[in-house]
Amino acid sequence: MSSIDPVTGKPKEVPVIPLDKQGFNALDTEAFMKLLITQLQNQDPSNPMSNEELLSQISQMRNLTSDIELTDALEGLTLSQQLNSSTAFLGKEIKGTTANGTEVSGVVDRVYVKDKASFLVVGDKEVPLTNVTDVTNES
């Protein structure tokens, strides 16, 4: 994306910032503390922020940080569980459908994880773990 520089009249590049890096989404703990310190340094001396307000803001940031860390840990755990479940299908005959709805049956050759989802591979077909409808031991 480009725009015109008002001084030189030449086009200049404008950085595109992803949505997850804008506003409060981009605010990490360090940035929050800098913002809080700046707020404290520039507050009205005749009407300073109360201790309760200060503690409330710090508490909210700690809660947000904890929530983010918990979400990341749960996503990792879920992915690990999916991979463990998928490996149990190796060498077994399954029936299911591919992501586009094609019916597949055969022996699972391998498993892999892509885009936070687990897939079973039967020949050249990829079956999402959630699309498996039947499982039997290979005869």
From TrEMBL:
It holds the Pfam family FlgD. It comes from the Bacteria. Keywords: Bacterial flagellum biogenesis, Cell projection, Cilium, Flagellum. One of its GO terms (biological process) is bacterial-type flagellum organization. Required for flagellar hook formation. May act as a scaffolding protein. Belongs to the FlgD family. This is Basal-body rod modification protein FlgD. The lineage of its organism: Bacteria, Pseudomonadati, Planctomycetota, Planctomycetia, Planctomycetales.
